[in-house]
Design brief:
By secondary structure, the protein is of the alpha+beta class. 26% of the residues lie in helices and 46% in strands. The strands form two sheets. Strands 1-2-7-6 form a four-stranded antiparallel sheet.
């Protein structure tokens, strides 16, 4: 990972056959997850045209950071499909919580406020339909204070 280059990027794409992959970066874990939301919605539409008029909030709990990333992106897709919203801004909080069933295991809880607006095809550009998020090659890494997430979207 190129740290000097990554510090100025919010996200970038990489080629995958029949899918699209992206890396999302952040100076904190939360910022990297926020930028992953931006990267995913920018595959679907031009996020610069999505106003921050509505807010959806949700919480998810997962057993590790990779599962948390998967669950987060899937929840955003679910909200898009059920509430007919595009999002262009995310506020994420991530914390470790104790697993109530075990004295040694910890889970991660993510709380998100997603800001966007109702889908309007007269305003929003139709780019690619994201069918699903995949676990394939998904990862969450930290290197010298820079967090890097990798995800692949099924188009």
């Amino acid at each position: 990972m190129e740290n000097d280059e990554s510090k100025s990027k919010k996200y970038e794409y990489f080629d995958v056959t029949a899918d699209i992959g992206f890396y999302a970066y952040g100076n904190s874990l939360e910022e990297a997850y926020e930028n992953a939301g931006l990267a995913m919605f920018n595959v679907i539409t031009d996020i610069n045209k999505v106003k921050k008029e509505e807010m959806e909030e949700f919480e998810i709990v997962s057993e590790d950071l990779v599962s948390l990333l998967y669950d987060y992106l899937e929840e955003l897709l679910f909200l898009q499909d059920t509430e007919f919203l595009f999002f262009s801004d995310f506020k994420v909080k991530i914390e470790k919580i104790a697993d109530k069933k075990s004295t040694t295991l910890e889970n991660y809880k993510l709380t998100c406020s997603a800001y966007g607006e109702e889908i309007d095809w007269n305003v929003h550009t139709h780019k690619s339909e994201v069918k699903a998020v995949t676990f394939h090659k998904m990862c969450v890494k930290e290197d010298d204070g820079i967090f890097k997430l990798r995800a692949i979207l099924d188009l």
